[in-house]
Amino acid sequence: MLSCRSVLKKLPPLARASSTLCRLNGRRAVLNHGRPVRVPAANMSTGPSGLGRDTQLYIALVGAATFAGGVYAYRTVKSDQRRYQERIDDISSRPLKLSSQQTDEPINFSEPTATEATETAVEATETEPIAEPEAAPSPEEPIPPAPEAEAAAAPTETTEPVPVQTPAVEATPALPEVPSHAPYLLIGGGTASFAAARSIRARDPGAKVLIVTEESEFPYMRPPLSKELWFSDDSSVTETLRFKQWNGKERSIYFQPPSFYIQAEELASAENGGVAVLSGRKVVHMDVRGNKVKLDDDTEISYDKCLIATGGVPRNLQAIERAGEEVMKRTTLFRKIDDFKSLDKVSREAKSIAIIGGGFLGSELACALGRKSSEFGLEVMQMFPEKGNMGKVLPEYLSNWTTEKVKREGVQVIAEALVKSVTFKDDRLEIKLRDGRLVQTDHIVAAVGLEPNVDLAKSAGLEVDSDFGGFRVNAELQARSNIWVAGDAACFYDIRLGRRRVEHHDHAVVSGRLAGENMTGANKPYWHQSMFWSDLGPDVGYEAIGIVDSSLPTVGVFAKATAKDTPRAATEDSGTGIRSESETEETAVSPVASSTPAPALEQQRDNYGKGVIFYLRDKVVVGIILWNVFNRMPVARKIIKDGEEHADLNEVAKLFNIHED
Amino acid sequence: MSYCRQEGKDRIIFVTKEDHEAPSNAELVADDPNDPYEEQGLILPSGDINWNCPCLGGMASGPCGSQFKEAFSCFHYSSEEVKGSECIDNFRNMQECMQKYPELYPQDEDKESSTQAESDSGAASAAPSEGSALSPETDATPSTSDPSPDSASPTDSQMAS
């Protein structure tokens, strides 16, 4: 037994299985030995050492077995070590072998890389030796992914041509562009990812950041896809994807032009680092213990720090999924650039479009398409289960008011509509609602929410939140050591407002930035509250911050329109560059108090032209909407940050100067 | 006079301009200027430059990021009489780098004039001035995180430039 134990100490944990067995047996044997043997003389036949013959035999067998097991384990480990060493030597020697064999090939490769190389001439010489081992056709035997220590050491030495351990690359004719190691690996190529990349590059000089995205696009911003791009006068907008900002200046939806990024294959050797985008690849497996990920083409990338910013996938209605191919072909789940392009095409060709969903996306698209309705002779319908547009966000009175505005944009609003089934009939789509109503249309846009993409949770062993969905992370956006999550997919702990998951653009920017800061050692919690905004036509534009849920009690303070006031076209104020000549610009609506002899032009109704709405939770303001009131977000942010109980919210509202512009 | 109404759990108040004329008596908590959690402006409390300031756009993170950082750091810490006069080489490096990326760093007139105002060294060709010059670089981050451009419409920065 003693010999067994000393052998155990030498063996690495690979021998754990056998060692456990050994230990158990050992313990049992010790127990048998150690205890004074109380032999009921009558039951056992005694052997020479005083133990029963059966027991002796048993001990002998167990001893032999454990010894044999120990020997086997020892030999396996030794041979593994030997094989590993051989493999390493083989790989190190390979570049030298290749350079002698393929002297002509590298020149072809290094030239394009040299011209592409944006860094100094030093880099060109570096890419050459690196290109050689990578240029080799895939070796006969697949190279196992390099052990972490090896790979981590290699790319940090950028000045020497390090034999990069490329995992088994399939025989692609082009340069194998997937680096085997990325110090900063960002999974997902959206807003959060880009914000993190920028943050990392700002804080870590010479940082090498690799973005891996499923999409074939460089990182771009989403809000214009449902707003500004639809209002563009440019007919080639679907190609250029440029829009006009509030200040009149044009810009592209892409955060940066392609020249901002470096090529993925140059990442390892880039002297000052850079951001590389590997597009059209999906990360399918994550090995947290080994600090590496696997792509859909079986290539592996190891990392030092990883960000998961996988965003989400639009939800669909079961009724549509069940309805079959013809219906699915005529349904758009709107999220990406391609969806925008195809919907733009549909809006020109179809006679009728039905939008299902009454939230931000649905309402914005409805308004955007509604404006085109007269231009194209297009019927635009919007249906949702709530009573009014933004029913889950705005208090009922405001939701109703907003719905009227949406209708004025040319949209046929069908409220309290639950879709029961959709069928393809007579070359049209027929939507049947639960209350029996039938709606005929040519095309459906489903804007019924987002399903956060947590595909990697299983392989990575990361926690998924059951209340909000998404990866569960702490206040610093960290899921586990070296893994952060930001954007739509992150269910994080907000110190002030509690655990939540936010699906807004500014949150993606703020959380991406924060994740980038924390990936470079900042250790800051989510503190700067993100905001969001929406515009629904020329009369309704608002900015909001915090938890804005219509189920919470609200206090709304609105500027009372007097006979002297004329409501200004909020387009200039709205800050989103929507230029529209409002033909329906009315003069002030009559005041609501019946005491005054109302110079009522129309019926007496409240005009919620502009104001502030506070959302309360246990008497503390947790959310604020600035309704047609702009440039006051810092005040709103401060109020939420304070988290104080205010006795009179009218006093708080004074801070916003809602009567001024 | 203000007018108040209750609709279920929601309270609605209409106020005239006169109602809101008196200053607010709502109490706000005093801010701690050294709060480590808060977003910082361009210059940190320690005096260092905050390279992650949204106001810099992508200047510190782009392909010419390191040259920009060197040049601007040199300028920032310069204690010469003509501030930044010893940083001419750094600025030249930066300019050379930026010329390689005309898409990212447009070399236009207003950039020149704004930088003349910034530094009197004359050699500086692109100091980090907010504004049109940085439009391709700045991205959709809320300007409200930075104290000075708070007055700019928040929506500007979101969509941003």
From TrEMBL, chain B:
<feature type="region of interest" description="Disordered">
    <location>
        <begin position="101"/>
        <end position="161"/>
    </location>
</feature>
<dbReference type="InterPro" id="IPR039289">
    <property type="entry name" value="CHCHD4"/>
</dbReference>
<keyword id="KW-0653">Protein transport</keyword>
<dbReference type="GO" id="GO:0005758">
    <property type="term" value="C:mitochondrial intermembrane space"/>
</dbReference>
<dbReference type="GO" id="GO:0045041">
    <property type="term" value="P:protein import into mitochondrial intermembrane space"/>
</dbReference>
<keyword id="KW-0813">Transport</keyword>
<keyword id="KW-0811">Translocation</keyword>
<keyword id="KW-0560">Oxidoreductase</keyword>
<dbReference type="InterPro" id="IPR010625">
    <property type="entry name" value="CHCH"/>
</dbReference>
<feature type="domain" description="CHCH">
    <location>
        <begin position="64"/>
        <end position="100"/>
    </location>
</feature>
<keyword id="KW-0496">Mitochondrion</keyword>
<feature type="compositionally biased region" description="Low complexity">
    <location>
        <begin position="117"/>
        <end position="161"/>
    </location>
</feature>
<keyword id="KW-0676">Redox-active center</keyword>
<dbReference type="Pfam" id="PF06747">
    <property type="entry name" value="CHCH"/>
</dbReference>
<protein>
    <recommendedName>
        <fullName>CHCH domain-containing protein</fullName>
    </recommendedName>
</protein>
<keyword id="KW-1015">Disulfide bond</keyword>
<dbReference type="GO" id="GO:0033108">
    <property type="term" value="P:mitochondrial respiratory chain complex assembly"/>
</dbReference>
<dbReference type="GO" id="GO:0015035">
    <property type="term" value="F:protein-disulfide reductase activity"/>
</dbReference>
